[in-house]
């Protein structure tokens, strides 16, 4: 039985947001709008069925689930680079 991979574009967006800790900076790095970043994060959260980020007054922060997911995803992207 094979496991189904999450959509790759939302994973890449997630990785950049985790690294930059900022939706606007992530959007600039990815050459897309901040709205597109938010939409990609929503796609990933819906796919996974968990909240990865918490919106705060001054930006975002990872939830516990988001932190655990980042710890798995970030090394994979680093290895690919």
Q: Name the overall outline.
A: globular
Output mean pLDDT.
92
Alpha-carbon distance between the two ends: 28 Å
Biggest β-sheet: strands ordered side by side in the sheet = 1-2
Binned, the helix content reads 55-70%
Beta-strand residue percentage:
5-15%
Write the layout of secondary structure elements.
Elements: H1 8-20, H2 23-30, H3 34-48, E1 53-56, E2 59-62, H4 64-80
Antiparallel strand pairs: 1-2
Helix pairs in contact: 1-2, 1-3, 1-4, 2-3
Produce a short descriptive summary.
This protein is mainly alpha-helical. It has helices at 8-20, 23-30, 34-48, 64-80, and strands spanning 53-56, 59-62. It is 65% helix and 10% strand.
Fill in the keyword field for this structure.
single chain, about 80 residues, mainly alpha, two-stranded antiparallel sheet, 4 helices, about 65% helix, about 10% strand, globular
Written account of the structure:
- The chain has helices at 8-20, 23-30, 34-48, 64-80, and strands at residues 53-56, 59-62.
- It has 81 residues and is mostly helical.
- A hairpin with a 2-residue loop joins strand 1 (53-56) and strand 2.
- The longest helix is centred in the C-terminal third of the chain and has 17 residues, at 64-80.
- The radius of gyration is 12 Å and the shape is globular.
- The N and C termini lie far apart (28 Å).
- The mean pLDDT is 92.
């Amino acid at each position: 039985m094979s496991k189904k991979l999450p959509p790759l574009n939302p994973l890449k967006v997630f990785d950049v947001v985790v690294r930059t800790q900022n939706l606007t900076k992530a959007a600039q790095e990815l050459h897309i709008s901040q709205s597109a970043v938010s939409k990609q994060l929503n796609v990933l959260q819906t796919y996974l069925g968990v909240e990865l980020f918490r919106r705060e007054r001054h930006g975002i922060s990872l939830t516990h689930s988001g932190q655990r997911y980042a710890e798995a995803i970030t090394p994979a992207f680093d290895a690919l680079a």
